[in-house]
Amino acid sequence: METNVKNNGQAKLVNTVQADKTPKFVAGNPVNAVAKAQEQKEEGKEEETKKPVVVSQEVAKTEPSKLEIKASLAEQKPALNLEQTLKKIKDLNRLSNQREKLIMTIDNLEGFEILQEDEAEETNLNHFQRCELKITDDNGNTFTTKNPFIIDQVSKNIKGLCTEKLTEVEAQISLNL
């Protein structure tokens, strides 16, 4: 170390150590170690030194980015409190009951159609020939028909609607789990 006396007897020291001026934090977040290692590799290539650049274990253990943290938090469902859990159970119970009723309605319609087809084969009559469809409203008004085509179409339409609704209910059940 060399000292020179100048300017009113103050000693001037020659500093041979260079300060590392690379930022450690950017906007409150640590600098990405992988990017820093790549910069060091590029600097090493520019200097064309024969010393190989060694990547430390710190590069392998990088901290997760904000997007990765958000994705992992989205995957982890927060724990429900007791009231939320009970509400979820009630909703699942309601959906389960609705599912059972729809399955019973579909089975009932399929059984009804099979029974009518069997009777039609025995008597050589048309499908739904001896059936009657009766609809009654709240005021006591009724609609009645014995037309087999209308009865067949109503039966198929109700079965199709029930099947679609069953699919929706089962999807809601799987989403709530």
Textual characterization of the structure:
- The chain has 177 residues and is mainly α.
- It has helices spanning 33-47, 57-60, 66-75, 82-123, 148-176; strands at 3-6, 10-13, 25-26, 29-30, 133-136, 142-145.
- The strands form three sheets. It has a two-stranded antiparallel ribbon with strand order 1-2. A two-stranded antiparallel sheet has the order 3-4.
- Strand 3 and strand 4 (29-30) form a beta hairpin.
- Helix 4 runs antiparallel to helix 5.
Based on helices, strands and strand pairing, what is the structural class?
A: mainly alpha
Sheet having the most strands: 2 strands, antiparallel
Instruction: Name the strands of the widest sheet in spatial order.
Output: 1-2
Mean of all residue-level pLDDT scores? 74
Discrete helix count: 5
Strand content: 5-15%
Give the low-confidence spans: 55-60
Total E-strand runs: 6
Helix content: 55-70%
- Quaternary state, please? single chain
Order of helices and strands: EEEEHHHHEEH
* Span between termini: 73 Å
Q: What is the alpha-carbon Rg in Å?
A: 40 Å
Overall form: rod-shaped
Summarize the structure.
With 177 residues, the chain is mainly α. Helices cover 56% and strands 11% of the residues.
Defining key terms:
177 residues; mainly alpha; two-stranded antiparallel ribbon; 6 strands; 56% helix; 11% strand
SSE blueprint and pairings:
Blueprint: E1 3-6, E2 10-13, E3 25-26, E4 29-30, H1 33-47, H2 57-60, H3 66-75, H4 82-123, E5 133-136, E6 142-145, H5 148-176
Antiparallel strand pairs: 1-2, 3-4, 5-6
Helix pairs in contact: 4-5
